[in-house]
Amino acid sequence: MLFAVPNKGRLMEPTIRLLELAGISLLASDERSIILPTSWPDLNIVRLRPEDIPAIVAAGKVAAGITGHDFVVESGADVVEALDLKIGRGSIVVAAVKGRWRSVDEIPDGTKVATKYVNIASRFFDERGKKVKIVKVSGSVEVMPLLGVADVIVDVMATGTTLALHGLEPLEKILDSSARLIVEREQIDNYIVQKLLTYIKGYLEAEDKRMIFLNVPAGRIADVVSVLPAMESPSVARLVRGDMYEVFSVVDEDQLPDLIMKLKAAGAKDVVVVPLNKLIR
């Protein structure tokens, strides 16, 4: 199966890193190659422009891919956004020279708007009743006001630092975006697609969780279990020697500092915390 990943831009490195952390490794690194084998014999990577991936997946020859939600919306491609990967986050915003206008409502008709998101920008300004002139660009959109090409831009913003460096400020957010695993509609039940979704989702589910093990005297089991969260119920196993039990569970990492103190107060000892690689529900 062919699986499309971005070959450039803000999503490229996070996507490759995510796949590797999830256990899907590239078996070649030739930057000139478009199609690369992976550690899965039934899965090959095809490297494409992120903005092209939605349309190519929708066409059916590439079963699935990773690209930004912004590119899916811009393309209008009929694909399934099967999984939000929580990487490459940003917002599509309307931005202008700092202090020139206080809001989008103040932008006059006839204003030039530079963007690579032509469809998103056009729909936004049409809905606001603004007759602007869209200038399509593919490079560094934020320099267009400085070059006199446009007065306003519509572009992706992560932290706002790049806008500020170019003397711009956001006036309004159009939509939030992040990397999505998208699938061609007729391929959603494909075995390899489902395996891919299960494996990556398993990694994402485990990313902020930890397995916790603790020894508990028999007389304190009820106290410990009462404060120990679990997906279903904590597991309890009697130790070979002594009147002791091992208790273990999966917990959210951000709960650990306070949770460990509560567990110790409830009678737990020998607490061990280990990371998870996958959590398949």
What is the element layout, followed by pairings?
Blueprint: E1 2-6, H1 12-22, E2 35-37, E3 44-48, H2 53-59, E4 64-68, H3 69-75, E5 79-84, E6 90-97, E7 112-115, H4 118-127, E8 133-136, H5 144-147, E9 152-157, H6 161-165, E10 168-177, E11 179-184, H7 191-206, E12 209-217, H8 221-227, E13 235-238, E14 244-252, H9 256-265, E15 269-275
Helix pairs in contact: 1-7
Q: Report, as a whole number of angstroms, the end-to-end distance.
A: 25 Å
The total of beta strands comes to 15
Report the structural category: alpha/beta
Measured by DSSP, the beta-strand proportion falls in 25-35%
- What's the overall geometry? elongated
Residue runs with pLDDT of under 50 for 5 or more positions: none
Descriptive notes:
The protein is elongated and about 80 Å long. The two termini are 25 Å apart. Helix 1 (12-22) crosses helix 7. Helix content is 27%, strand content 32%. It is an alpha/beta fold and 281 residues long. It has nine helices and 15 strands. The longest helix is centred in the C-terminal third of the chain and has 16 residues, at 191-206. It has a six-stranded mixed beta sheet.
Features:
alpha/beta; six-stranded mixed beta sheet; 32% strand; 27% helix; 281 residues; 9 helices; single chain
In short:
By secondary structure, the protein is an alpha/beta fold.
